[in-house]
Predict the structure.
Amino acid sequence: MERYAPPEPIGTWRQGQMPPEPLATGLGRCLLEVARPIYVVRRQDGLCLSQDGAAQLGARPAAAEELPLVAYVPPLPPARLGDAGFKARHGLRFAYVVGEMANGITSVEMVREAGRAGMIGFFGAAGLLPSEVEAAAARLQEETPALPFGINLIHSPGNLELEAALVELFLRRQVRLVSASAFVDLTWPLVHYRVKGLHRDARGRVVCPNRLIGKASRVEVARKFLAPPPEKFLARLAERGLITAEEAALAAAVPMVDDLTAEADSGGHTDNRPAITLLPTMRALRDETAAVHGFAEPPGIGLGGGVATPDAAAAAFAMGAAYVVAGSIHQACVEAGTSPAVAAMLAEAGQADVAMAPAADMFEMGVKVQVLKRGTMFPHRAAKLYELYSAHDRFDQIPPRQREIVERDLLRCRFDQEWEHTREFFHARDPKQIERAEKDPKHKMALVFRSYLGRSSTWAITGEPSRRLDYQIWCGPAMGAFNQWAKGSFLEKPENRRTVAVALNLLLGAAAATRAAWLHSQGIALPPNAGAMAPMELPEILKRLKEPPL
């Protein structure tokens, strides 16, 4: 490790109770003792390190018992990673978010476990009826009222009534934190949620009781999230009596979101953006908009998509992420609202075992989601449906052989029979779609195809064995990276993957990797695996962090 000339001293070090040990033998252990500092000193026999004693920066050895200090690393408990403002805003110990996975995959149990550990989870409300979302909100508020939690609000193109119903639910139940995902533009229900309740406190400061975390991968969307609510929506809301004149006036003083997640190559709705370019872009945009609008507290910028290993989390924090968001890797955890069959499939996935497929909620727009392709034919079958929809104006225009395949292998019934099932679905959720479909055969075809796409995720969640080849499992390449890191450890088996154990492994490993990087930046030659951490069981992590059992 000393094939390069050691760096010049930066101070002196005086031994405490424990003598220093050779760098080669003590480095791995000391990096993981994240609550204690690391002193690297020069002795005649080479570089040594200690986590004991006392150092004085800028001084020269003045006594025989003092040694030259050539590098110093301060303590870095995982609770110090990320932005202090983000953690204070949301009442968290760790800057870690368990991202929302639709249809309740990010379950009440998962959100609750994250909250108990000082993190935050967002219940996966997308795809659920308002009554189901309200039941989840009630459980979270009544069973664990003191714990932080959030609920997802996904953009519903063409169905603002659903967005409005969910916002009304959130306001009525005083759900104070919402994650806005898949938005391609702002909507009046989203602005309603953000602005309702705005007021000044006793010191004259504008208080926004409804906190919002946006997710964006595009600059044009992020810019709107980072700016004040649009005047056109404020005027409309005020005219309808949904907000007061004072709330509308105070809206100019706050951005649409408290925080913004730069969504890179994630599972589900994604633009497959590289994190290493997306995060700096969003941070620069935040600085630009904050300067223009003069916000008292500019939004924090976090990173989601690809955060699946300690090194990835360390890289995110090193680039300035206020927090990290993990989704795909938690879908394989035991608290996830999905089937054991899906968890097993995810645990076998590699980084290349994902593909883009048409999205059920934005099918006609050509929007795609990232899904698992290993062990399922869903990506291929969904793509075929979109191809047929794009090429034909009605189902009976499709060539007979292709219609036969769709009805036999995908719908498993005649098209008109599937339409009756589809009618029932939209009658409960969005009746105007039925009216349109009865007049427009192409729209009817789209709704039937969307029915297959939508139910494919339900089959995966319930573990329907007869539909295994049709499972739609939202997943990004992060899953494969996690599996590679977990290989050979207790986390290799899905039945051992618990939300908090996964999260704390990533955070502790990120702290160790960061400390290794600090040593490297001070000119200390390190072995290739310096800072690498194998997964640890939760009791061992809590012992190292001096945390009580969860």
